[in-house]
């Protein structure tokens, strides 16, 4: 995760932020967005107000009259999201201050400077009324950026900073709750507004750390029901705004057009309410008093404050779970993933892993929609995905290794041609096998028992290895299969290629090669004064069951049928150096080799005499 | 060795304290009460008085100083009862003044009087009281908090500068301002001053009455 974060820091962050927005959308779609408190109202200087008043830019006297009008509707507090800065034009200042005095509950905004070297706070800001705060307890501001004019600040019931914390993609998902300025706690506009509304003393705020603050004795449900209100923050002192939903009348609090209120077309009763006074006209949007949020691309900032205030009044917060949760989730789910990689087959491992990832994703959306918990998604899913890929690659490498071992093992039994067929069509190896016409070869060393009794074991081993190696080469060269080595005997078989019956001729060719090589070895051993060397070979052609046969614990690619017994018996009939074949084999090879009829023979295990032939080694039939 | 160190430190403290003492500002004050039989008496700090009880505040401060009498009622309402300056340079003359007779209303609780004599004008305090008196509703509460904080800061400032002195009860009341025929200094009169307080540049006294 750290590596990915290092490689693609912006990308990862953007995805994670986008996932937060998706959760808002899903929650809204499910109708689970929090409701707005009836204790919040809006008075908006909207486009209608601007048009009807005929004033593109309202004079301060008009604002003053509006504040007087709102005051007459007896609100508990008025949060003014319009900043009346000190300007050359002083006209209307007096009326505005008088309206503020008459209201006695107007909360004004100002802007903090978070860059180094900020201007010292003026006395009129009244920082001396704010609680003392230890440096570092909250995000620090260096000074003041913009304030209302002094007299207005003096007469305001409270001042809250209006700074917001846009995420790197410019979307407002969080706002700072409190900041530290000159050793004092400065509340955000929404917090000061609610504190003024509820007569809440800011001295009661306890800052635990930048992940949590507690409002002690907070009268969320009236003065008779004081309780501690814990506010979860994002670890940097910001409150994640729990947006009620898109800006629709059905969702948002009662809102009034300022002009209607001012001209008494509308009567209102703001008893007990916090009234946000804001400029929501398109002009304000042009001036940057609107921002993109997870629920709308253009959202008046005053409504962002209203949403934040709503969280305090309804106790509905978004709780970001800390990174330690992500670490724990990665460890637990990672362990399960590794366990499934170890215990489950490849398909089930993939299904389980993907299921686990999807389950976590679903969980993150569910707990957000239901409880407002914000689970880290990518910090959990990406490591798990990496772990999954790593496990898959590891399994693949392991499989290849085992396949290599298996193939190496098979290669000592199967011809390269058959190996190629198996690679193309692994179904050949399916358990059960198939009934086929084949030619079976049984080869045996002459007088091996006596030889092994008198010779050194090393010499016996040397003879056997040479014999087996030469035989295997000969068998494979004719696309035969070495079924098994039995002491000094070799059982092999040859399959046909499609409908063509070629197994018999290839088996005879193989046997001739083996006999020729045995003859050479005999010459060599005799020149070395060693024991003579000779083999006997029996060949039969007929139907048998070919394939993987046997119990699950020990499966052999082998051949089953009477042709095997017959080949073994025929081998015993011949003399050293002979190739003895049955009638069916003779049928397929008689035109190609010199075959001698040895007459019927009684063979052990067969009730009737068997017609036996031998292939003359070194002789070819005449043409025709 | 330890004793020597203590002596040196004590010497330093005395050396530092010396000049401060020389610049100390002193003022006198007295809360005078009147019994039903018209007899006058000195009200002590923390005294318990019933609603309707009469009281009178006398004070005497050096001319050229700024003098303030601030009152915090039992209903947490601030009032700047007195703010005065002769506008003349200090000439060791003494100004005597009085607030006249007051009667306690029906709001019971702690009544707090803060008396301040300062070499310089306490403009911030004056502005706060001025804004406080103009303000209404929750703005007014904010100013009240700022005034309380200003008093706290002043107390802390005096404490840190080492010029904070406890108010002293005089052995016998003195008469401020004028001499009244037939009244000896030891007797309590309408102009008696019973307490004294001093400070470096600023002298402050807090006087409370438990109103029941």
Walkthrough of the structure:
The complex is a heterodimer of chains A (624) and B (212). In chain A, 42% of the residues lie in helices and 23% in strands. Chain A has 624 residues and is α/β, with parallel strands linked by helices. In chain A, the strands form seven sheets. In chain A, strands 19, 20, 21, 22, 23, 24, 25 and 26 form an eight-stranded mixed beta sheet that branches. In chain A, strands 1, 2, 3, 4, 5, 13 and 14 form a seven-stranded mixed beta sheet that branches. A three-stranded antiparallel beta sheet of chain A has the order 9-10-11, with no helix packed on it. In chain A, helix 5 links the parallel strand 2 and strand 3. The model of chain A has no long low-confidence stretch (mean pLDDT 88). Chain B is 27% helix and 41% strand. Chain B has helices spanning 2-22, 123-134, 137-161, and strands at residues 24-34, 40-42, 47-49, 54-62, 66-72, 78-84, 94-103, 109-118, 168-175, 192-200, 202-211. In chain B, helix 2 packs antiparallel against helix 3 (137-161). The termini of chain B are far apart. The interface between A and B is medium-sized, with 19 and 16 residues.
How would you summarize the topology of this molecule?
The complex is a heterodimer of chains A (624) and B (212).
Chain A: H1 2-7, H2 9-29, E1 40-45, H3 47-53, H4 60-72, E2 77-80, H5 93-103, E3 106-113, E4 143-146, H6 150-155, E5 158-161, E6 174-176, E7 178-181, E8 184-187, H7 189-197, E9 205-209, E10 212-218, E11 227-232, E12 238-240, E13 254-257, H8 258-262, E14 274-279, H9 282-286, E15 290-293, E16 296-300, H10 301-314, E17 319-320, H11 323-343, H12 346-371, E18 373-374, H13 378-411, H14 416-424, E19 434-445, H15 448-454, H16 457-477, E20 480-486, E21 489-495, H17 503-527, E22 535-549, E23 556-560, H18 562-573, E24 579-582, H19 583-589, E25 595-601, E26 610-615
Parallel strand pairs in A: 1-13, 1-14, 2-3, 2-14, 3-5, 17-18, 22-24
Antiparallel strand pairs in A: 3-4, 6-12, 7-8, 9-10, 10-11, 15-16, 19-21, 19-22, 20-21, 22-23, 24-26, 25-26
Helix pairs in contact in A: 2-12, 4-5, 7-10, 11-12, 11-13, 12-13, 16-17
Chain B: H1 2-22, E1 24-34, E2 40-42, E3 47-49, E4 54-62, E5 66-72, E6 78-84, E7 94-103, E8 109-118, H2 123-134, H3 137-161, E9 168-175, E10 192-200, E11 202-211
Parallel strand pairs in B: 3-11
Antiparallel strand pairs in B: 1-2, 1-4, 1-10, 4-7, 5-6, 5-8, 8-11, 9-10
């Amino acid at each position: 995760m750290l590596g990915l974060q290092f490689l693609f820091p912006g990308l990862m962050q953007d995805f994670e932020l986008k996932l937060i927005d998706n959760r808002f959308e899903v929650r809204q779609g499910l109708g689970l967005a929090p409701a707005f408190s009836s204790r919040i109202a809006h008075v908006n200087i909207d486009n209608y107000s601007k048009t009807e008043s005929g004033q593109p830019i309202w004079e301060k006297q008009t604002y003053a009259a509006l504040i007087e009008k709102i005051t007459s509707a007896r609100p508990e507090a008025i949060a003014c999201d319009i900043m009346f800065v000190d300007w050359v034009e002083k006209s209307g200042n007096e009326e505005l201050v008088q309206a503020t005095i008459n209201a006695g509950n107007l909360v004004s905004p100002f802007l903090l400077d978070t860059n180094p070297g900020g201007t010292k706070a003026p006395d009129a800001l009244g920082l001396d009324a704010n609680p003392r705060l230890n440096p570092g307890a909250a995000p620090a501001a260096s000074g003041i950026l913009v304030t209302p004019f002094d007299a207005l600040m003096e007469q305001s019931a409270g001042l809250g900073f209006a700074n917001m914390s846009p995420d790197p993609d410019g979307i407002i998902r969080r706002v700072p709750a409190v900041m530290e300025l000159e050793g004092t706690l400065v509340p955000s506009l929404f917090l000061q507004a609610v504190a003024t509304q509820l007569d809440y003393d800011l001295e009661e705020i306890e800052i635990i750390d930048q992940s949590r603050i507690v409002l002690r004795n907070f009268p969320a449900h009236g003065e008779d029901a004081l309780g501690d209100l814990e506010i979860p923050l994002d670890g940097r002192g910001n409150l994640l705004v729990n947006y009620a939903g898109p800006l629709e009348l059905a969702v948002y609090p009662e809102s009034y057009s300022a002009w209607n209120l001012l001209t008494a077309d509308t009567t209102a009763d703001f008893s007990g309410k916090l009234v946000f006074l804001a400029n929501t006209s398109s002009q304000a949007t042009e001036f940057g008093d609107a921002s993109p949020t997870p629920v709308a691309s253009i959202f008046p900032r005053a409504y962002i404050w209203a949403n934040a205030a709503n969280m305090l009044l309804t106790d509905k917060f978004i709780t970001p779970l800390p990174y330690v949760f992500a670490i724990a989730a990665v460890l637990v789910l990672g362990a399960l993933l590794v366990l499934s990689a170890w215990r489950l087959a490849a398909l089930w491992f993939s299904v389980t892993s993907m299921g686990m990832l999807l389950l976590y994703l679903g969980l993150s959306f569910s707990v957000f929609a239901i409880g407002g918990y914000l689970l880290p998604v990518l910090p959990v899913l990406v490591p798990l995905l990496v772990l999954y890929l790593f496990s898959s690659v590891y399994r693949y490498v392991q499989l290849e290794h085992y396949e290599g071992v298996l193939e190496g093992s098979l290669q000592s039994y199967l011809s390269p041609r058959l190996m190629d067929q198996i690679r193309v069509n692994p179904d050949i190896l399916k358990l059960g096998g198939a009934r086929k016409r084949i030619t079976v070869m049984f080869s045996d060393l002459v007088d091996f028992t006596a030889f092994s009794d008198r010779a050194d074991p090393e010499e016996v081993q040397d003879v056997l290895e040479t014999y087996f190696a030469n035989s295997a080469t000969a068998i494979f060269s004719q696309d035969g299969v070495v079924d098994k080595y039995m002491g000094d005997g070799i059982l092999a078989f040859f399959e046909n290629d499609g409908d063509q019956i070629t197994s018999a001729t290839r088996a005879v060719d193989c046997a001739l090669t083996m006999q020729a090589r045995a003859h050479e070895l005999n010459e060599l051993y005799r020149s070395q004064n060693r024991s003579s060397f000779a083999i006997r070979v029996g060949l039969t052609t007929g139907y048998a069951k070919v394939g993987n046969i046997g119990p699950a614990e020990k499966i052999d690619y082998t051949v089953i049928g009477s042709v095997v017994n017959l080949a073994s018996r025929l081998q015993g009939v011949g003399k050293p150096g002979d190739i003895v074949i049955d009638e069916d084999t003779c049928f397929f090879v008689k035109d190609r080799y010199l075959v001698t009829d040895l007459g019927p023979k009684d063979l052990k295990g067969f009730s009737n005499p068997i017609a036996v032939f031998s292939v003359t080694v070194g002789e070819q039939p005449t043409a025709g | 060795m330890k004793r020597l160190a203590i002596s040196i430190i004590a010497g330093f403290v005395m050396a530092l304290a010396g000049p401060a003492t020389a610049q100390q500002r002193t003022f006198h004050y007295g809360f005078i009460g009147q019994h039903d039989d018209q007899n006058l008496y000195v009200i002590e700090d923390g005294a318990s008085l019933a609603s309707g009880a009469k009281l009178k505040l006398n004070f005497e401060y050096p001319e050229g100083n700024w003098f303030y009498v601030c009152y915090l009622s039992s209903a947490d309402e601030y009032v700047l009862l007195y703010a005065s300056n002769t506008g003349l340079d200090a000439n060791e003359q003494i100004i005597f003044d009085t607030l006249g007779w007051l009667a306690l209303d029906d709001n019971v609780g702690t009544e707090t009087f803060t008396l301040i004599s300062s070499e310089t004008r306490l403009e911030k305090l004056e502005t706060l009281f001025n804004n406080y008196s103009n303000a209404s509703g929750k703005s007014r509460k904010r100013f009240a908090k700022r005034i309380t904080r200003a008093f706290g800061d002043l107390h802390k400032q005096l404490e840190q500068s080492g010029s904070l002195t406890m108010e002293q009860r005089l052995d016998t009341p003195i008469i401020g301002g004028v001499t009244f025929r037939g009244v000896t200094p030891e007797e309590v009169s309408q102009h008696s001053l019973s307490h004294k307080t001093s400070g470096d540049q600023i002298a402050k006294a807090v006087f409370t009455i438990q109103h029941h």
